[in-house]
Amino acid sequence: MDLTRTEVVARKRGAAARFALLAAPVAFFAVFFAYPVAAIVARGLKTDGTWHLGRIGEVLAQSDVRHVLWFTTWQALVSTALTLIVALPGAYVFARFDFPGKHVLRAVVTVPFVLPTVVVGTAFLALVGRGGLLDDLWGVRLDTTVWAILLAHVFFNYAVVVRTVGGLWAQLDPRQEEAARMLGASQLKAWRQVTLPALAPAVAAAALMVFLFTFTSFGVVQILGGPTFSTLEVEIYRQTSEIFDLSTAAVLTLIQFAAVGAILALHAWTVRRRETALRLVDASVTARRPRGAGQWALLGGVLVTVAVLLVLPPAVLVQRSLGAPGFGYYRALTSEDGGVFLVPPIEAIGNSLSYAVAATLIAVVIGGLAAAALTRRDAGRFVRGFDALLMLPLGVSAVTVGFGFLISLDEPPLDLRSSWILVPLAQALVGVPFVVRTMLPVLRAVDVRLREAASVLGASPWRVWREVDLPMVRRALLIAAGFAFAVSLGEFGATVFIARPDNPTLPVAVARLLGRPGDLNYGQAMALSTILMVVCAVALLVLERLRTDRTGEF
Amino acid sequence: MAGTLAACGSSDGGQGSGDSKTVTLVSHDSWAASKDVIAAFEKQSGYKVRVLKDGDAGQAVNKAILTKDNPQGDVFFGVDNTLLSRALDNDLFQSYEAKGSERIKADYRVDRDEHRVTPIDTGDICVNYDKKYFADHKLEPPKSFDDLVEPQYKNLLVTENASASSPGLGFLLGTAAQYGDDGWEGYWKKLKANGVKVVDGWEQAYNEEFSGSAGGKKAKGDRPLVVSYASSPPAEVVFADPRPSTAPTGVAEGTCFRQVEYAGLLSNAKNTKGGKALLDFLISERFQEDMPMNMFVYPVREGAQVPPEFVKYGPQAKDPETMAPAKIADHRDQWVKSWTSLVLK
Membrane-spanning regions, if any (chain A) (predicted)? Predict the structure, then answer.
């Protein structure tokens, strides 16, 4: 304790500030995540006031449960490997090449990430199923094979790799590699000794994120895999929603929780390694027109990959939505037939936009505060642990969260079940992690010396913040908001349980229309899906226009 | 957007679950009723009706059980005979004998001592066939469970996962009723060997795999036999534009299992008076005659008229398989588990 008095006072102030910043995020996650999940797990493992933890061993001993665990793990590993193989060339192209339409293409690449799985499942069936494009051209069918699942996972997660690895790659100073080459290193050696070490943490982080998303895959496996393939998430859904074996569902939830926690801890570690190791430059300095046949061929290859894997499935949806003459399916959306909905399906658009705006506001406030707290240089181990905790909603079963909301937020002082805000709260749980991961790198990158210089010259803390921090943070906030908006718009897993029939969201409306017989209902589902894709694409296109020089992780 | 959110807020306030002027019905996704019929009830009773649809039937029942201590509504509609025991064993309902119950056909009435549920509608889970396929191939469509394992019907049938889907479960129970407790497994071994395809739910089976439905045609479904309902052919006619003069699909009448759907007054319901009035209305002639063209089910009330589309395209099966709810309760979970091991693994 040889600190000076000033240092002691400063440290106490820092602790107070950190606590204040974290109070809202901690409360938000405690009330709207930890409490609901704990409630539904307890419902399954605690009866008549007694815990039955022996149930955990019993469930793990069942061969079909071990089969689910094995399938979940190996398909996630293969999905991750395939995604990296397909997407890393894309990351390089976006990082180092400048070409017309680049911004639009980046938005196109990101749209799949936020589409509802019910929509993508149908689109992929039309691509790889019986009577699909592959079937027509080459007699190849992949539906109800694991290949359909793997391809759809690449479709969804391509953007994670491109944006995570490509975003960093674009800011690596190419002069370091060039310097090594001038000193006699071969191109391969320079790449292996300079670029690869710099990229490795980002690749690892992207791989872990893709693994997380595919490990917890629900809609894709459920729709494309059929009843013979189950991930943990699908099995939790079946046990809770269909079979009503709450104790098995609770055990599976705990297993997934533990696995996801481990993945997130690893991810947090790789992210911190990345951030402390690099000297970054402006992305515009590193990108240039492709040169030589090899580079143009690479660009062409990436474009073909994007066209076939990412553009073709949505194109099938659009084509189907135009199946009736004179936009008949779109016009049908405005009629109130008293059938599937109590309101015309088109009202789902307004509902979804309203909910997504509310969810975005919640996510940006909570996520922004959390990111600010995590950015402080004196953050301790507790705060770094909270970093990983913030990501948990991405990995915990949406079914668990949805049902948990139902049974825990149902009495005063938190009787929200008949309140409109329940849906945006569920959506915000998924949006907050994206806000945090978008803003953290930007906030951490603010040059501390710039702020210190301003202080020395007499600027007040408020003015330092306004002149130095705000311009950089504002754009990051807008990007984070765009992402949270798109993710909220497409959220389905938890919302399907809590969205009200007089206020359905777009994904819920699509699922309900698909569940009804008849050409008109099917066509309207395709039309609504197309509208949802367009709205997401527009949001992401606007997002691209607001890119900062130092991009976030998503 | 602030205006929209405020509007949501204010309208929610007006429909709070504590408002005794509102009666709330919780149902599966397939609930539907004509506006004027609901309006008539609202006018006659003074209650405003709110409907909450909660996914497929199994999902809705499970959700209702999970929230039974503080239910989302007053009346639950849509628990069928295959899931009834789960609802009753979990004390989902309180007793109420709806006015007019004596007009319900005796076959459909259960729980006569405690009156916890009231039959509302019935339907038949049956194999449907694509008429065009069988005409093109000059093949007789199957008529019975026995037919489905014949070689000429190899690789033609698609059904739903019995653990996840009420038609899938109904079909399984139909085979158990036909072949007995010890005989259905042998039948399913033959059915599997004859190329039956299993998908998760009705939407996939009917709108993607089945070659006879509008959705299936678009998806290029290649299975001309699907487990669906006796009322599916009229739906294909009613929702088509323009309407065909004959239904594109038919029903294999010897493959039917009778399904009955019930409604009951939820335990801990906040508006029990409104709930009782709504239950009375659900078995009134007005509502019973409105149901078929909205939910594609048949009335349980004697004397209720069915619409001409049903008479022409989708009459009720004459001699469907049935099974007592108590027997279903005793065997359902074990049979589903055995079926899963036999057919899916």
Answer: 20-42, 74-95, 107-127, 147-172, 198-223, 243-269, 296-317, 353-374, 386-407, 419-440, 476-499, 522-543
